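job 3f2a | input accepted
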Amino acid sequence: MVGKERRTCRVSLEYILYKSILTGSSLWSRLIVHYWALETEKDAARALEAGEIYEPKPVQYLQRAYEQTIEATSKPNQWLGTTTAAGAQLHFAQGDSAHSTPMLYVTNLGDSQILVLRPNDADLVFKTKEQWHWFDCPRQLGTNSPDTPQQNAILDKVEIEEHDVVLAMSDGVIDNLWEHEIIENVVKSIHRWESGEGESDVHDRKGGAGGGMQFVARELMKAAKAIATDPFAESPFMEHAIEEGLAMEGGEKPNSFSLK
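job 3f2a | predicted structure (260 res):
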């Protein structure tokens, strides 16, 4: 994780939750991801009814987390803040035989992004679409926002394969790098890691094993920061601003980077 007031959390080997704060207090982001993780684990651990098949309900978990955060920040004094939310939960789909298919349950509310890519083919498998009220004003949870998970969060179920890479990125990454630049950077970084760059005492490096994903994340953040700090660089954020009739050069603000 890189950047101020950005929070990431790995809940267990089965669940990956990511969220990023957009404006206001980091307390909102911390509480949302805390309660979201608890609701996820609580539902996964409960005893099932006879004949019931467990399936994740991440939007419901996020809704409960949102309600608990409102309660926690209301007394004795109201704590103002807002946050966007993006999460990816690993599960599976059971076929007719004993074979099961890995599935990713992706939840998004706001302008962060979950992106899934297949490094072997340098292919995009899936990405979420940003949600905005208007340019540079994303949907978000918190003070004075009309948005709620139940009404506005989007859930996608994505079939994935072994060695796929799942990126959870704040707007500071996707506002500064185009999709093809992100994919190219990640694939090249994995190949560099497999060729021996990075830590010297790692033996298994295949597909980013042995800590390679940290190396990949650092390299992607470097690329995003280079655009953000260049006042004359072209960027997706600049392109969107021009489409809205705004005069703008360079990348998006450099203090909003986060990647998991």
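job 3f2a | The chain has one domain: 6-243.
job 3f2a | closed
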